[in-house]
Amino acid sequence: EALNPPEWTYAPPLVLPVKEYSGPLGVKAKKFAKRLWAVGKAYLQFYKQGVKNVWAMVKLARKLRARQKKEVGGLSKDKKAVGSRDEKAAGEEVVKALVADIVLTRAEWQIVQRSQKDVYRLPFFATLLALFGEYTPLIKGWITFIIPEPCREPTDLERSLKKREARRAERLQVLKRTYDTTVIRKVDTGVRGRTGNAVIRVDATLDAHPWVWEFFMTPPRFIVQWDVKRKLNYLRMDDALIARDGGWRGLNEVEVKRACVDRGIIVNRRTPWQMRMALAEWFG
User: Fold this and answer.
1) pTM of the model
2) pLDDT digit string (tens) for 188-245?
3) Which has more confidence, 22 or 140?
4) How far apart are CA 117 and CA 61, in angstroms?
5) Is residue 89 predicted with pLDDT exceeding 50?
6) What is the rounded distance in angstroms from the CA atom of residue 18 to the CA atom of residue 38?
7) For 190, which of 88, 100, 254, 255 could close a Cys bridge (C-beta 3.0–4.6 Å)?
8) For residues 2 and 108, what is the distance between their CA atoms, to the nearest angstrom?
9) What stretches of 96-185 adopt beta strand conformation (E)?
10) 126 by DSSP, 3-state: which?
């Protein structure tokens, strides 16, 4: 599969015991306690499998980087070139040339990208999992940001998406703007020379700068520019790899939703078909 990462890179299935509280009060209490313990064990098994998947992704990503480096010269050179000044003149040709040099498929490239984030989350989450064990679900609402993605259950993902879209709507409301893909696609990765309003609007739409900034202050302009540039570099490379390896129509449902989230497209309360249509508009 060139476009979609394998199933094991996603969160494993979480199977919870069925609720059954019939009978006298004493029996109900025993059944409730028994089910509570079973739920904790189910979550523990879910998290353990998720941690194994993350570690397997990290090891696979190392092999993929080594293969890319051996055959072409690595991915770091590609990232640097995408953000170079020459790209402003060469346009999409530079991205196409870089994609031609990448021996990895889009699925493999995504594994490398995703493992870079989860490898930093893994030690913290594994430590908490070892400390709390079956009781980890009781604190997961406060530690979602350090939970690797393959360890997040669907409710955690939905909650994170709602917060992300609410944050985007709030930022755009401050700017008195609405979402528009054409604005994003017109902003070049060389954002330093662009107008401040365009960069700030793209930053708000793509949720480019880390949310932790908002606890302290509005991020400085150069931070916003750097975050937008980095985000656009990622999107342009991903767009080119998707086009090279079969096109957006070949993305599975999970990848379509993820691609929409990456591009700032609203996914909350949208059907898979609506998300595909929004992605079709992005790719034109």
Assistant:
1) 0.81
2) 444 444 556 778 888 888 888 776 666 677 778 888 888 888 899 899 999 999 999 9
3) 140
4) 12
5) no
6) 10
7) 88
8) 8
9) none
10) helix
266: left (phi over 0), alpha (psi -120 to 50) or beta: beta
Q: Which long-range contacts (CB under 8 A, 24 or more apart) does 41-49 make?
A: 41/134, 42/14, 42/15, 42/16, 42/17, 43/14, 43/134, 43/136, 43/137, 44/129, 44/133, 44/134, 44/136, 46/11, 46/12, 46/14, 46/151, 46/153, 47/129, 47/136, 47/151, 48/129, 49/12
Taking residues 28-42, report their average pLDDT. 85
Question: Cβ(187)–Cβ(199) under 8 Å?
Answer: yes
Rounded Cα gap, residues 102 and 65, in angstroms: 10
Q: Which of 62-76, 79-93, 127-141 has the lowest mean pLDDT?
A: 79-93
Domain assignments of the chain as residue spans, ordered by start: 1-152, 153-284
Q: Rounded to the nearest 10 degrees, what angle do helices 272-283 and 221-244 cross at?
A: 100
**Distance (Å, whole) CA 284 – CA 276:** 12
For residue 182, report the phi and psi dihedrals to the nearest 5 degrees.
-65, -35
